[in-house]
Fold:
Amino acid sequence: MSGLRLSRRALLAAGLASYVGGCSSDRPLVDRLVVAGGERGGFYLEFAQLLATQLTAAKVARTVEVRSTEGSLQNLELLRLRQADLAICLADATAHSREVVALGRVYENYLQCVVPAAGPVRQLPDLVGKRVSSGPPGAGAALTTNRLLIAAGMHAERAPVIANLHLSDAADALAAGRIDAMFWSGGVPTRRLSDLSAQIPVRLLPLDRWLSTLRTAYGVVYQRAQIPAGTYGGVEEVSTIGVPNLLICRPELSRAVASKIVDVLVKHAAGLVPAAAIGAHYLDPNSLIGTSPLNLHPGATTRYRTLHG
Structure:
């Protein structure tokens, strides 16, 4: 009888273990993740919010917090300080970072230089001596804009007067005539710029003339990109500088979490594209892995290989 009781206990224990194991597969992998996004009114924050929804639904984390930030440079710092687990970042801003790896190449940022359509500025060199916002110090746009101005020979005595304004403040200042131009790096259309074009007629300056100089100095991370006609009210098609956006993390993010995030990027791509987006998106298997200059997280690499060979 004692042997029979033990067998029953063993069977009960095995059944309980099986039940717990079955339930554990439905449990989130981690309790909490923090995603560093971007400025309000821009694509970074909107993408981060969409990503948070998908990560929660896929049970990657019980809760996913999205932080509004100034952009790429601040996002890198938040990862370094361990105040964020995931971040969106411009590829050019990551070039010298040794503390982060990539989970995927998610979409393209367009460098946009916005001026009043009724004003005298028609080309980038017309901004010499003019009042220009290049974005806040923590934004990748400020980095890319500074490189562009140097490539165009617009530095020292030929430099614009730079203000580091946030997106909404810059749009307000441009509408009020307090600045002559604003740079913004983001998806198209950017909602705040759409609102601005409804306030005043605007023009986008062509910027691709200096692409080869940028590529010579900083590598092939910079690309020619077309902003379609009608992206903003009355704006014609214009060629500009495109920079890939990467979803990044610290190397110590667990392989299981990295793998599950890849599943979300691959299998739920449609739910990660902002509704108004009309630009280039990289949320497909062939381009998600193109994360230069960063290496892929090992867990992401393994999962991409499993999914697509």
